[in-house]
Amino acid sequence: MGALVEFDGRLVPCIGRDEPITNKRATGRLQDRADVERLRSADRR
Fold it and tell me: Which of 2, 4, 5, 40 has its CA 20 to 30 A from that of 11?
């Protein structure tokens, strides 16, 4: 789930960490699959 972040005095909606991973999985592109693996491996550290 995303969050609202204050930036320059305004609340700006930002996506969370899981949303880009979900989007990359949905595309099925080879580079996106590699990106997901890299992001997930960083989580395991």
Answer: 40
Residue 1 lies in a domain: no
| Average pLDDT rounded to a whole number, residues 13-27 | 91
Establish if 27 belongs to a structural domain. Answer: yes
The H or E element containing residue 7 is strand 3-7
Beta bridge pairs of residue 13? 4
Q: What are the Cα distances from residue 32, in Å, to 7, 40, 41, 42?
A: 29, 12, 14, 15
In which domain, by residue range, is 39 found? 16-45
Does pTM top 0.85 for this prediction? no
